[in-house]
Design a protein that fits this description.
Strands 3, 4, 5, 6, 7, 14 and 15 form a seven-stranded mixed β-sheet that branches. Helices cover about 25% and strands about 25% of the residues. With about 325 residues, the protein is an alpha/beta fold. The chain is globular and about 60 Å long.
């Protein structure tokens, strides 16, 4: 089978190159009692995976030269010595960047996808961690209501696009997205049915943001961090909730070059909540969230937004696309 291994550790604040990863041929792994063998069909490519390589994430242990790259995937069980997973089951879980994966039956991060009527790749977009992150952020942290004006940075990303659609399902007062170009803003309004989309590269960004939010921001779902977060803080209402899901604008910066926030005082002034979260703290809710999201898709309330490439060979470009802001939706590699 093929798998992607770490060939050279990239510099801590640099993007991977073709010399970072190596496509290798290795034997298909044998399974032990309590395990199943999964034929991997699609992989999620997420910004955090670059941080695994440089040991700057708490979501995974650092990996060594020659290790396969960790990451979530979806696939079908082809062999099983497990009482939990049976041959023919669709599974989403920690497959890694490889064609076949072994999954232990006691691994809480792996779940059976009970929705064979939907494309299996949805398990690494709407029905996976991206959709679940949107649900956790809006329901558990922000406690979203119909009265809320919701602003989303990175609205065309994997998580942001789910947040926008769920906020629409919840019938929020106003849903506003932030993007990096006029073209992306037009696409966001068309594909996500949001009230407004604003280009953060527009010289009049602050003016347009103020006009769009009207009476202020109740929920800011932040996937970007940095100056965009600082700017949105200017317009938060009392008891606003800032959901810190990601900060991709800061991941490749060393400490001395990270953005220095000026408007933190606004949170104290308005008694606002700022909270980050680790999705794996909510594993006991995975099956329930998966079912909710699947029903949203079946009812055409959510349309998965996906950016797909094909073959393990495309993975270097796929992860770089995230940092270069080229992706539209969840970045997926189909095997």
């Amino acid at each position: 089978m093929k798998q992607i291994q770490l060939k050279n550790v990239p510099e801590q604040f640099a993007l991977p190159t073709e010399n970072t990863f190596e496509l290798c041929s290795v034997p298909v792994p044998n399974i032990a009692q309590g395990e199943c063998l999964v034929k991997v069909l699609a992989l999620s490519v997420a910004p955090v995976q670059l941080r695994f390589l440089t040991n700057t994430s708490v979501a995974s242990n650092a990996i060594s030269i020659g290790d396969y790259i960790p990451g979530r995937g979806v696939g079908i069980v082809i062999k099983s010595k497990s009482s939990r997973f049976s041959v023919g089951d669709f599974i989403q879980g920690p497959c890694g960047w490889r064609e076949y994966a072994t999954i232990q039956e006691n691994n809480p991060l792996a779940i059976t996808m009970n929705c064979k009527d939907l494309p299996i790749r949805f398990g690494v977009s709407t029905l996976g961690i991206t959709g679940m992150s949107a649900l956790i952020g809006l329901n558990k942290i922000a406690k979203i209501t119909k009265k809320d004006t919701v602003v989303i940075s990175g609205v065309l990303g994997g998580v942001g696009s789910q947040v926008a659609q769920i906020a629409r399902i919840k019938k929020c007062k106003k849903v506003i997205g932030i993007c990096g170009s006029t073209l992306k803003c037009e696409l966001a309004k068309k594909r996500l049915n949001i009230d407004e989309a604003i280009n953060y590269n527009d010289p009049d960004f602050l003016i347009k943001l103020e006009q769009a939010v009207g009476n202020g921001v109740d929920i800011f779902f932040d996937n970007v961090g940095g100056e965009i977060l600082d700017n949105v803080l200017l317009y938060i209402n009392r008891k606003a909730r800032i959901v810190a899901c990601g900060g991709i604008s800061q991941y490749l910066l060393d400490d001395k070059n990270k953005y220095q926030y000026k408007n933190i005082w606004k949170m104290q002034l308005h008694d606002a909540l700022y909270q980050s979260f680790m999705i794996y703290d909510y594993v006991k809710h995975f099956y329930h969230m998966h079912s909710i999201l699947a029903e949203y898709v079946r009812e055409y309330k959510i349309t998965p937004l996906e950016d797909i490439s094909y073959g393990l060979e495309s993975i270097t470009h796929a992860i770089n696309d995230l940092y270069l802001r080229k992706n539209i939706g969840a970045r997926i590699v189909v095997l």
